[in-house]
Amino acid sequence: MRIALIASPFISVPPIRYGGTELFIAHLAEGLEKRGIEAVVYSNGQSTVNAEMRSCYPKAEWPLSSETSGMLKELDHLSWSIEDAAKTCDLIHINSAPAITYSRYVSTPFVCTLHHPHEIALTRMYERYPEIHYVTISEHQASVHPTLAGTTIHHGIDMSKYRLQTEKEDYLCFLGRIAPIKGVHIAIEVAKRAGIPLKIAGEVQPIFQEYFDTMVKPHLDGPLIEYVGEADLEMKNRLLGGSRGLLFPIQWNEPFGLVMLEAMACGTPVFAFSAGSVPEVVQPCISGAISATAEEMVESVKNTTYEPEVVRGWVGQGFSVDIMVECYIELYEGILSNSLETGPTLDLETEVAA
Second label for 256, Cα 20 to 30 Å away, from 113, 282, 290, 303? Predict the structure, then answer.
């Protein structure tokens, strides 16, 4: 079995810093290779994934120089990748909405993993291509796409790349895009009310520079609230591993949230708002706490303790790369053996322990 995994041309696989989808693709590709399945990753030439890699653009480009140039580059990359993959691969696995439109030009079966929040326009487009096998990354995401026949497969994480740290320091952390929907300003509020230092790591995209300048930067005082920049894998291990908790006060229905798994893999609990996939990922009293308000989150942070080994164990039991890869292999094999039918009446679910 030979599987094409198509990423965008903008961020390397795996990502050096920002890039949840690219991290997922790297984990899946390397997991398939370990199972003896050929994976061909279509990304940019700076990717270092441990699998066959092909590209038509030699370098990563993030952030984009302009929206127009980014759109054109994406379409060019997709058309080239899909044309090339159709010649040698048994199945093409895409990870963006524009890619589905190219499925009409080749006979190779397609799988499309949905990584984005729910938008009616995108759902209507997906409905026009019922022959594609859609994968939702949480049960919540599946629930907002009831017209799509698909499979739910939770993301998994490579536990070997994250270090368990049992001795925690007295600080909280936030890791993610510095954007309003991620709730950085609420994380600051929680940390201040709890009286616990907060370390903030993440990318400040140009579109959210004003948000950073007005809602985050004025609170950066060093001792209590600190911005430490973007985080690569080594910094993630140090930042998450040493923290007494990851704050995840999201203001939207996050489709998944890989950073929650990254924190837990380091033995660090997650303090989150109940939205999107959070109830499927955070197990109260075991791997973190789910709150309805900032006040509740403050209380959880101050008054609950967790065993790092138990927190990490929760991820290994339900969200490992091995579990995720096994689910995708089962899906691929079913498609290629014609045992899975397509159409709007199909209702498939692959459940991973949550």
Answer: 303
